[in-house]
Each structure stands twice: as structure tokens, then as C-alpha cells.
Amino acid sequence: MKNPQQIGLKGRTLREIKYLISKEIFNDNGYYKDNKDFDIFFNKLGEKTKQLEIFSHFYYFICQPYKNDEIRDELRLVGITSLIEGMMQKVEFKDFFQWFESDYKGVNEIKDYNKIKEEYLNKFGATKKVKFYFEKYVLEEDKENLFKCIKPFKNNKVFKTFDSIQKIASFLYKMRSDFVHKARMKCLCPKGCSVACIVVNKKPYKVNIGMQEFMKIFERSFIAFWQKQI
After folding, report:
1. Max Cα–Cα distance, the chain, nearest Å
2. What predicted TM-score, i.e. pTM, was given to this entire model?
3. Are residues 101 and 52 located together in one domain of the fold?
């Protein structure tokens, strides 16, 4: 992806910068390379253009896809999951205490809080938003690539393929949460390595996809999301 100088952001207004960055994300992935085609798509979004520009601007300067390895994987993953949560705000949400009072009414003793917390997150938390996003907007060929590249260790015997894209989304979100809430550094397959073994939530996983490739998968899903907003 082009850097700010190559796009020509210097001296532009903030609105112009956001527009040019939005266009660059689409152009770099092979969409609407003719300015007229992008403008037709852009105008069809109506009031949603403001959200497209806000999220594009956030992705470009927080995740900095125009750089190689200067930004840590963890920070990029946090940025991407934050974007997904922002775009999926309309997904059903219920406050934890509201949910607990309705589903566990009359329960006076909690033996496994982590299990209850995971149940809530799967139903109404940010994890649900990320799972829904992966299921609906990640391209089918990219899903297949993720299945090949991220595998959990099953039954202490062999690395097996995930049986759903939602479980891969959950794995990535756990990586993000370990970094944000537990100060644990977790990265995908580092540059120069063909495969990496990482431990998330005390479980080993084999990973042979790097952050640069994962960001391209996200960018294509990002484009698919906005194309479906028309």
C-alpha cells in the first residue's frame, strides 16, 4: 500500500485525507482503480461515507499497512479487532449484569466465573461481533487460507483443522485479549519463519501466516463489508 507521501496527503484537509485513504485501500486491493468508478460507489453509500472514511483513516494510521515490520503484530491485531467492533455496533448486545440476572436468576454461588464469562462473551460480547464479522465478510478463499494456516493441537496428538471460521475468530480475539488484559505478547508467524507455535489460553497452535498476509485478508473483508452497505 502507498505511504502518505505517495498518496499525496501533505497539505490536504482532513476530509480530503480520509477520502484519499479510503480510495487507496480499495485501489490497492484491485477495486475501483478508475476514479469515476470509486466515486460512483462512494456516492451510493450516502451518509455512510463518513463512517467509511473514519474507519479507513483509523486503519491506515493505527495499523500502518504501508509499513513492513515497524509496528508490532499485537498492536495491529488490536487495531483490526477494534475496527471490527466499531463496524459491527448493530449486532445484538446485552449488558453482562442484565444477562446474568436473566440467565442465572436465583443462583447464589458461582463455582467457575471464567466459564460464565466465556458464555456471556460468546452470546453478547465483543467476541460475538468478531465471529459474526468473520463469518459474513471474510472472503471464502481467505477463510480456506485461514483454515490451512491456523491449527489447534487436539487431544495432545496432532494439529487439526478448525471446524468453523468462528473458532479462528475467537482464537485471534483471545490473542488480542491476552495482550490487552494480561500484558502477554502474542504474534502470528514472524517474518523469515515458515511456521510458528504459539500458546493462547494454555493451548498450543500452529501458525504459518504472517501479519502482512492477515492484514490483506482483513482489507478484502473490509471492502466486502462496505460493498454490502449499499
Report:
1. 63
2. 0.86
3. no
CA distance 140 to 196: 24
Q: How far, in whole angstroms, is CA 149 from its chain's centroid?
A: 16
User: Residue 89: what pLDDT?
Assistant: 83
Q: What is the per-residue pLDDT for 46?
A: 96
| Cα gap 62→82, rounded to integer Å | 11
Same domain, 22 and 125: no
C-alpha 74/C-alpha 105 separation (Å) is: 38
Q: How far is CA 109 from the centre of its chain?
A: 36
Task: Based on the fold, state whether residues 3 and 103 are members of the same structural domain.
Answer: no
Domain, as residue range, for 97: 72-230
140 plus 197 within the same structural domain? yes
Residues 77, 58 within the same domain: no
Which among 75, 111, 114, 77 is positioned nearest to 122, based on CA atoms? 114
Give the three cell numbers for residue 15. 476530509
Give me the residue label for grid cell 475501483: 32
Cβ neighbours, 10 Å, residue 34: 9
Contact 72, 187 (CB under 8 A): yes
CB 172 within 8 A of CB 218: no
Is residue 132 domain-shared with residue 206, that is, in the same domain?
Answer: yes
Per-chain mean pLDDT for the chain: 90
Please say which residue of 17, 41, 67 terminates a domain. Answer: 67
Structural domains in the chain (count): 2
Q: What is the dihedral of CA 36, 40, 42, 44, to 10 degrees?
A: 170
Q: How far apart are CA 230 and CA 227, in angstroms?
A: 6
